[in-house]
Amino acid sequence: MQANQIFRIPDAGGNRPEGADVQETVRMAVIGVAQGSGVSFVAGLLAAWVGQAFSDESVALVELGTPYFYEAYGIEKRFLYRDFYPFHRLVAERKNIRGLANMEQGINWILRCPGDAPPGGVHEALSPGDSLRLVHNATGTVRLFDCSGMSAGLMWDILPDMDAVVCVLDPLPTRLCPYIAGIERIRIEAPRPVFVANNMNRGVHRGELRRFFRGTDWLELPHVATEDLYRAQYNCVLPYSIASVRKIVAPVLAELWDRTCGSPDALRTRGTGNGVSKKAKI
């Protein structure tokens, strides 16, 4: 009998997916350099897209930085009659998290939640060790890490353990020019980085943007109508659930997956961290 079957936190079993102890995983960090670039937005879109595109994959969306999805997605209502595991508190208390999951719509939600916060109500940043425990022990064959709001030091502690990194940038000049050094470091040092220019609209000067990237390729995620974002939060759904949003972002997400993990229609490379990879069929 495996140790993680003996020393397991008791639960009712309703949130535990079959095949919890997966061996092959893709670990992908979604990061940004400027506040408000849309890191959580892109992470949520990508999680929903992967969950729909690959029925045989189990997706984990892990918040390592600023809390967002618990309120925006109405988690409290969705788990009203089920246990919602406070993973951040569990890892801080050195509890075993293997095999535990908060499953909803095909996604394992490992989120900052009220159960994590101390009496003062302020979420404290996880230590590098606890963050890496989430990185390596979250249940899911595809693990997406929302790094919105993380300190640069903590972010660089976990990036070497990623198979790919998605850097979300707002094309507004004041959210690009002050961060040239950080973007260049990501381009050089991050594992398999892909840059995504979020909120692309007709006001963006593409020639200037090309000059800024200086030959580095990037993907363009179109502007999503503000009313659709409001509609998603009022209805406690992910923006990807709205047809008009899905129509414009799905092709970009497919290209993003192709650049980081391989073609959705063929064999894709599955990483095991630090540049080591092997092949697996979708």
Task: Explain how this protein is built.
This protein is 34% helix and 17% strand. By secondary structure, it is an alpha/beta fold. It has a single domain, classed as P-loop containing nucleotide triphosphate hydrolases (Rossmann fold).
In short:
The protein has 282 residues and is an alpha/beta fold.
Number of helices: 11
Number of strands: 10
The assigned structural class equals alpha/beta
- Globally, the shape reads globular
Summarize the amount of helix as a percent range: 25-40%
Q: What do we call the CATH homologous superfamily?
A: P-loop containing nucleotide triphosphate hydrolases
Number of domains: 1
Distance between the termini: 30 Å
Biggest sheet details = 8 strands, mixed
Stretches with pLDDT under 50, minimum 5 residues: 1-23, 264-282
> How are the strands of the largest sheet arranged?
3-4-2-5-1-6-7-8
Radius of gyration, CA atoms, in whole angstroms: 18 Å
| CATH fold-level name | Rossmann fold
Instruction: Look at the structure and give the CATH class.
Output: Alpha Beta
Q: Which architecture per CATH?
A: 3-Layer(aba) Sandwich
Order of helices and strands: HEHEHHHEEHEHEHEHEHHEE
The amount of beta strand, in percent, is 15-25%
How confident overall, as mean pLDDT?
85
Salient structural properties:
single chain; 282 residues; alpha/beta; Rossmann fold; eight-stranded mixed beta sheet; two-stranded antiparallel ribbon; 11 helices; 10 strands; disordered C terminus
